[in-house]
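Shapes recur. One chain:

:::
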Amino acid sequence: KKLARTGRSRTALEEGIEEKEENEKIKSNSDLVNNQSSDTILFTYLYSSPLVCNSIFDLRPIHFIEEKDMLTQELTRIANGVVFNSMPATNKNLKRIVDEGCRCLHLSGHGVKIEEESCLVLEHEEGSANLLTSEQLNTLIHAGNSSMKLDLVFLSACKSSALGEIFVRAGVKHVVTVTHDGEVQDSVARKFACEFYHWLFAPQANKKTVRESFDIAIQRIATDMDFRTQSSRLLLKDNYYLRMKNMMIIYFIIELNVILWIFLLL
């Protein structure tokens, strides 16, 4: 993918070199998962900025190289025991991350809605757009996977709220998403991510919980007038969020039944 993004055609030799490098990266990722200690956190960055998109979507290029460099520098500077790994966001790579035991997944890409269904725009192996629907994502996560190993998923994609809930229901403890109809600029997402991970992976004396790290990052970007309105479009979903949501549904049903009984008695 990296060679393809330079804007020139690739030779057969380059294709072979790239395939070899990709295989080594996959092997390296598997070795890291199998050999990581209990104190090691494998952090995987998946990126999707397709070279070829369907004409119905006007998808701007994502500056994933800049974001990747920022995250690498931040994690290297503050985090001990965090192993950073990156690869294109294809179905195959996403499935591998879910199955092999990565603990933190940051997925940077586009989110779209088609007939009210949320979808992730991933990549095919050759770099063209691959639309992953909510149903397909749910199937991919659960297929052959008896227990969820991911602790944190950050979906840096617009309109990804419903997609995030799929991860939560699959057992991921914490999921950061964008609201179901919200859009967030790349610059906002990058700044928020760096603030969020800065506090989450800080040395023990300054280390914060996921919720605390999220709240601090929101406060930090909200101080910038240009980012203030977009800060409200970021969400943190977890088991507590689901319990509260289910309780609200139960209360609504009870209240509806009470109103119905009063109406019948009258």
